[in-house]
Amino acid sequence: MKIKLRRIEVFMAVIENGSFSAAAHALDVAQSAVSITIKELEKELGTQLFIRANRKVELTESGRLLKERAAPVMSLLMNVKDELKDLENLSIGQLRIAAPAMVTQFALSQVLPKFMALYPKIHIKVYQAGALEIEALVKKEALDLGLTVYKGIEPQPLAIYPTGYHQRDLLERHSTALGIPLNIVLESENPALILSAVRSGLAITTLPLAALENESGIVPLKLPHQKGDSLKG
C-alpha cells in the first residue's frame, strides 16, 4: 500500500493543531480541503482515524497507531528538508581541497580564513599533492576543488644530474612544492654533455656557477631562493 505523503502531513497537522480549522490555518488551505484529505486517507486505510465532536477531534485507536508510526517518519523528512536547505545555502557540508605545498602556503592561507568566517559550519579538508595527482583525484571525484599552478604551462626540457646530486634534489623539491612536473630529456653525471645540450638550445639546466665560468654563450639565472637552499642555475 502506498500512502500519499501529503495526506499524512495533513493528518499530523490536525493532531498538532487540535482541529480541522486550526490545521487548515497552519497549512494555509481551506478547511474543506483538510476534511477531504482526511476522508481520502481514512478511505485508503479502510478505517476511521478521528472522532469528530464539538469542533474538536480525538484519535481513534487506529488514529493513535498511525500517529505512532507516522511521527518519526515525518520528523525524519523535515530534518532532511532542513539539511538539504542548509547544504544549498552552504550552511553545512564538507569541502575537500588539494593543492601543491606552495599554493597551500601562500594562496590558501589567505583565502581560507575569509571563507571559514563566512561559512563556519563547512568542514574543510586540505591535502597537499602534485599537479598530476590532483588532476587524477579530480577526475575520480575524490576532490571538490583542485588547485595547480602549471595548468597551461608547458614544462621546459631539462638536462640535469641524476638523482642524489644536490642540484637535482633541490630542483625536485621545488618542483614538488609547486606541483610542476619535471620534463627531463637528458640525465648525466657529465657536465660537459649537459652543457652541450644547453648550447644547442635543446634543454635548460641547473649547475653550480663554477661550471659556467668559461661559458660565454650561456646566461645563468638565479632561481627563487628559499631559506636553507643554495641552488643557483
From TrEMBL:
Belongs to the LysR transcriptional regulatory family. This is HTH lysR-type domain-containing protein. It comes from Erysiphe pulchra. PANTHER family: HTH-TYPE TRANSCRIPTIONAL REGULATOR YBHD, LYSR FAMILY TRANSCRIPTIONAL REGULATOR. GO terms for cellular component: cytosol. Coiled coil: none annotated. InterPro entries: HTH-type_LysR_regulators, LysR_HTH_N, LysR_subst-bd, WH-like_DNA-bd_sf, WH_DNA-bd_sf. The lineage of its organism: Eukaryota, Fungi, Dikarya, Ascomycota, Pezizomycotina. Residues 3-60 form the HTH lysR-type domain. GO terms for molecular function: DNA binding; DNA-binding transcription factor activity. Keywords: DNA-binding, Transcription, Transcription regulation. Pfam families: HTH_1, LysR_substrate. Signal peptide: none annotated. The keyword Transcription regulation applies.
